[in-house]
Amino acid sequence: MNAMVSLLCVAGGALGALLLSTLLPQKHRSHTHLLLICLIAVICADVLLAAALHLSPPMQNSVLARMSGFPGLLFAPLLYLYFRTQASSCGLHVSDISHFSGYMLLQLIALFEFAEPGVLPWLTIQSYMNLASLLMMSMYMMAAIRIIPATALQQQCTVFHHGRLAVTALLAVQATYLLSTAFSELSSRSGVVTGDITDALLSCSLTVLACSALYRILTRERHDDTHVIHLAQAKREPDKQKYGNNRLPDFVREPIVNQLNEYMESARPWLKIDLTLSQLAASINVNPHHLSQIINSEFGKSFACYINEYRVNAACRLLSDANNRTVLDIAMDSGFSSKSSFNALFKKHTGLTPSEYRKKFQKNDYLVA
């Protein structure tokens, strides 16, 4: 049993390290991306330490083992903050450090007992520390679960192949830490059986996350090899020069582009006169810098030009209808703030004024009839 768990921990830790190597190279990272890196790093470090403890039992009384005493209490607030940044446009704040005060306090007590053994009634204090850790992790887990339905990770995920599977794996890690803390007393009395089970569960969850992310990378690369669009390549050349190594990888851009196209068609946010890049990015849970980069690279235009094209196309449809609506009404219904800006942008995109476009369409329609 011990040898099998050790093998699982080594394999899970190796896959976790490989996953981290794919997440770290990106220079400009969103808060969500940074939190995901921290989550994977916590699991990976815990699994690798568990493998070391299984392979070298004398390490179980080392300071390194004592420093890893409450990984679940470090993972729980990270998971909550990760889902929070997925669910809303708000990022991280300095005050978010307070979420880790419980972990730091309990860890300091554990290290003090290691440095000065016998000073504290450790057996009594450890039971209270485990109870406090269990309560805090439970509260964070319930808070994270409440946020999940609002996150884009359930349907769209820019890292993992299957968003819901990734959510399940992350929650499984949190549940494993809860199980480990709840049965810590049982573990001390019955050997390492409970510890073996929790270490195996952590390794399996980390393996699922790593395989899902790596599979997405591989399938994206295969998709790029079989579906080459020359026009898209031509548009991306200036983007490579502009962003250099900071350019988003292909497997990140594609789901954001699909999500953006679907949202633009279904929600029609361009009808809002004062629509901003930050508002659009928040609506699809994307970093504004990443959204701006994607619009520039994938569509070859600025945010303002991208939005105005939707507005002009809507105005063209309204002008082509046989009705008596004024040009100002059509401009307002298409998302423009004034008639003058509407006339200027409409002529820039179509080469005609709104009135000329309407006359030309009605004349052509009459000749066809």
Structure characterization notes:
By secondary structure, the protein is mostly helical. It has helices at residues 2-23, 31-55, 63-67, 71-87, 101-115, 122-147, 163-182, 184-189, 193-226, 230-243, 250-267, 277-283, 288-299, 303-320, 327-333, 339-350, 354-368. Helix 2 (31-55) packs across helix 9 (193-226) and helix 14 (303-320) crosses helix 16. The relative contact order is 0.08.
Strand count, sense and barrel status of the largest sheet are: none
Taking Cα atoms only, what radius of gyration do you get, to the nearest Å?
27 Å
- Strand portion, in percent? under 5%
Helix vs. strand class: mainly alpha
Helical fraction: over 70%
How many strands appear in the DSSP assignment? 0
Please give the count of helices: 17
**Unreliable residue runs:** 151-156, 188-193, 221-241, 365-369
The average pLDDT value, as a whole number, equals: 76
Name the helix and strand elements from N-terminus to C-terminus, one letter apiece: HHHHHHHHHHHHHHHHH
Tell me the span between the first and last alpha carbons: 83 Å
What overall geometry do the principal axes of the alpha carbons give? elongated
Structure keywords:
369 residues; mainly alpha; 17 helices; 0% strand; elongated; disordered C terminus
